[in-house]
Every structure is written in C-alpha cells, then in structure tokens.
Design brief:
Elements lengths: L1 E2 L10 H17 L2 E5 L1 H7 L6 E7 L2 H12 L5 E3 L4 E4 L5 E6 L1 E5 L6 E6 L2 H5 L10 E3 L7 E3 L4 H7 L1 E2 L5 H7 L2 H13 L2 E2 L1 H9 L9 H12 L4 H10 L3 H4 L1 H4 L15 H15 L3 H9 L4 H4 L1 E3 L3 E3 L3 H16 L3 H13 L13 H11 L3 H10 L6 H29 L6 H8 L5 H15 L7 H11 L6
Parallel strand pairs: 3-6, 11-12
Antiparallel strand pairs: 1-10, 2-3, 2-9, 4-5, 5-6, 7-8, 9-10, 13-14
Helix pairs in contact: 1-3, 7-9, 7-10, 10-13, 13-14, 13-19, 14-17, 14-19, 16-17, 18-20, 22-23
Length: 474
C-alpha cells in the first residue's frame, strides 16, 4: 500500500482534504469501511484537478450517504435504491456514495440483472480500467493508504490502459467501456493495451445495445479533449466509428486514385477538428469541424482538369445532419448550429474579392447571426495545408473578410445613428416650423457627437442645441 497523504496537503486541495477527513471521521464513528475511489484517486496521483468525488462503502452506501449529508447540512439525497448508490447535492463537489457491489449481466443488456454486496477487492475488479480501480482509505488510522490490487500506479507511469480482469468480460458486460477506452486515451494521452484493442475489435458490434444518449455523451467527451483526433482515430481503428457515426466512417480511405490526388477526407477532417480544438475550447465548434465535410463522400466526382470535386457538399451536409441529430439525440439548438455552420463554411472565403458588395457581406452576417465568430474560427481551422505560404495567404484573406464585416457594421451603425434630440424638440426649442432648417440643426448635433465634441447623451445634445441655435435663427 502507498500513502498519498502528502499529495492532499497541497494548498489547492485544502477544501477537498477537509471534506475527506470529515468523511473519515464519520466512517470511524459508524465503524464502516469507506474509501474514495476511481477517477478522483487517479487524478490525484496524476496531479490533475478533480471535483468529482466517488465514495465507496462496504455496507449500505445509501444509509451512509444520508448521515454524511446531514453532516454537510444537505437536506435531501438522491437515491438509486436498486444500485445502492446516492448522490449528495453539494455546491463545491460532485459527491456520489455507492455500496461496494458486484454486478451480473444478461448478454443483450448492459443493465445488471443481479447486484450483490461485496468487499473492497470485489468492487474494484469490476471497474473499467486499472487506473480507475484504485481506492484510498479514509478511516482516521488508515487515512491516505492506497489500495492498488491491479497495479494501476504502474499503468499510470507506463501511460497504459488495461482492464482489471479479462477484457472480453469487461467490455462484454458494459460495451460503453469501449468508448471510454478511446476517451481516456484521448484525455490522458495513454495507449490502449493491444489485448484490449483486439477485444474491442472482436466485439465492437455490442455497442449497439447501449442507448444512443450514452454513446453520444461519450462521443462528446472525446470532442472536449485537448486533441480529439486521438480518440476519434481509435474509434475508427477499433471498428466502433462505423456503428456510432457511419457518416464519418465513410470518409476513411477516400483519398487518391492512380490519376488524381486529393487529401484523405478522414485525415483532413481530423486535422480540422484538432485545429478547432487549438483555436477554441468550445465543443460545438469542434463538432462543427467534424461534420463540416460530412457530405463529401456522397458528392465526390472526378473532373478531368481539376481532379476530385465535391460540388454542393455543404448544402447536402446540412440535410444529412438532420438524420445524424435524430440518431444521436442531439438537442435542437446543437442540431441547428451544426446545420448552419456546415451550410456556411465555404461562404466567407468567397467574400474576399474586391468586387463583393456590402449586401453580400451583410447577408452572410445576418444568416450566421450570433455564430459569425464561430464560423470564422471554423474557416481558420479548415486550413490544413502544410505549405506555410498558403496558410498565411488564407489567414490574410479571412482577415480581409473580417475587416469588410467590421466596415459594414460601422456603416450600418452610422445609418441608424440619430441625434438624441429629435426634430420635434428642435422645433420647440428654436421656435421653428417643420422644414429644411430643422434637419440642418439635427445634422449639426449628430456631427458634434461623431467628432467627439460632445457626449452621445440627451443632456449633452440639448445643451449643445441651446449653444448653436442662435446661428440658425435669422
């Protein structure tokens, strides 16, 4: 056993350490074995931040959760009686308390049909990977002792994902773990053990018994990682992509013929996703990067002079996303966002020419709406050439488009701009009838605001009107 008490003495973990000691005091009081398990222990050993705290109790997890909630001043816990787990709503940590348990599954379901209480070892062996199958003791006398029966620490040091038991059984019982293998590899920069990869390839089709909501959530987690292509390539190589996202799977290997050369659509797409990840933390942009060329396999043609063409792939892609969204149970907001950026991703570069009118610029800005900045990020991410001169040329072109958009905004704002003092008030103050002179005075006030002579406020404009009105009353 390894003592990791010192790691918890980090000042950044003061509140976490205090909470875990409170849990330890309660476990001593209740004479219960209580451990913090899974991702929190892994992240602690890897010096990664984590606010997700999973507690495991040998005995009744729900009963312990209620007592812990009382200590924390939380009135009600969310119970899952069948699984012996409870969630304690807390404003600082995500706390889940579970009974140490074993689970048995029927072949065609990932939902356990039989759950039994067990000891520490029995609970840890059923977990997905050895790096998540470690536990830290919280009882006062043993506080900080690490239980690592499957050499999770060694696998962290080797940056390797392995299963605690035979991978055939681990992945068969819960096929979602196959997706999680790709996620952890992408998130942590780990490799998946060959034995696990072969097991996943062998039973990839079992992912079909998992609800699409759960598959979608794991897929989106991969998109949120620092370099999403790591996980996406693994999904492809392990045979999962053709089941969970067949439209992306179709891109794989669609590149050259003996006569024509073109970037591999799959490789290009993944480069765009990684570029988007470097440019923004926003998952939605990364998702848009993944699907922006989704219709290229369907629209690929060979032109004798130009090679491969993909005419209309943006419009067809927008339609295809409707089907993808239904299958993946995407929220309408995300669906509409992906459709919009897919449809528009070629439009900005077409606005570079000097002959482009303000109305063309304005039309794109109106269609894109609040997502115009995201669209421009996607356009920059779509530059995957290794020719640095071309990269710079493309980037300069996008800068030109943004300057044009800014100029249009400023011109439109000027057209809408009017003096805070309106015509009728000018007529009253200056004792004038409606006519040309009122317009001249109003323009004089607006010019003073634009030139910075006075502030753009009603009081400043009215004061200025009184100053200049004598010049127009003759």
């Amino acid at each position: 056993m390894t003592n990791i008490k010192k790691l918890l003495k980090d000042k950044k973990l003061f509140h976490v350490n205090s909470f875990l000691k409170l849990v330890g005091d309660l476990s001593q009081e209740q004479k219960k074995e209580v451990y913090v398990v899974g991702g929190f222990v892994r992240d602690l050993l890897m010096r990664l931040p984590s606010n997700d705290i999973d507690l495991m109790v040998v005995g009744s997890g729900i009963s312990f959760a209620k007592k812990l909630a009382k200590k924390l001043g939380v009135r009600k816990v969310i119970e899952f009686e069948k699984f012996g787990t409870a969630i304690i709503p807390h404003n600082q940590f995500k706390i889940e308390v579970a009974t140490a348990r074993t689970e048995k599954y029927e072949y065609h379901s990932r939902k356990p049909f039989k759950i039994e209480s067990t000891n520490l070892y029995g609970d840890l062996i059923r977990r997905d990977f050895t790096i998540n199958a470690m536990a830290m003791d919280l009882k006062n006398s043993k506080y900080g002792n690490l239980h690592d029966p499957f050499d999770g620490i060694a696998d962290i040091e080797s940056k390797l994902l392995k299963t605690p038991m035979n991978p055939e059984k681990t992945f068969s019982e819960d096929p979602l773990r196959m997706m999680r293998a790709a996620y952890f590899a992408s998130k942590l920069g780990f490799k998946i053990e060959n034995k696990c990869i072969e097991s996943i390839k062998k039973q990839a089709s079992r992912i079909e018994i998992v609800s699409y909501e759960r598959v979608r959530d794991e897929f989106i987690k991969i998109l949120r990682t620092r370099k999403p292509s790591v996980g996406l390539i693994l999904l492809q190589k392990m045979g999962l992509m053709k089941i969970v996202f067949p439209e992306i799977d179709r891109m794989y290997g669609m590149n050259q013929s003996s006569d024509w050369r073109h970037k591999d659509i799959f490789d290009h797409t993944l480069q765009v996703v990684d570029n988007a990840a470097r440019l923004s933390d926003k998952m939605e942009i990364r998702f848009a990067a993944l699907v922006h060329d989704i219709a290229k396999p369907n629209t690929r043609r060979i032109d004798e002079k130009r090679g491969y063409t993909f005419h209309g792939h943006e419009a067809l892609g927008e339609k295809m996303i409707e089907k993808v969204a239904r299958r993946m149970r995407l929220p309408n907001r995300l669906k509409n966002y992906l459709k919009k950026l897919t449809l528009l991703h070629l439009r900005p570069i077409a606005l570079v020419k000097d002959t482009v009118t303000d109305s063309a610029i304005r039309r794109l800005m109106i269609i894109a709406g609040d997502d115009i900045d995201d669209l421009m990020i996607l356009c920059r991410a779509d530059i995957t050439t290794k020719n640095q001169k071309r990269v710079q040329r493309y980037l300069n072109n996008f800068k030109k488009v943004e300057v044009k958009m800014k100029n249009v905004l400023e011109r439109d704002a000027m057209k809408k701009f009017q003096s805070p003092v309106r015509g009728k008030e000018i007529m009253v103050v200056c004792n004038l009838d409606e006519g040309k002179k009122v317009g001249i005075i109003k323009q004089k006030i607006e010019n003073a605001i634009i030139e910075g002579k006075i502030e753009n406020t009603y009081d400043s404009a009215l004061e200025y009107l009184h100053e200049i009105k004598a010049n127009y009353l003759n």
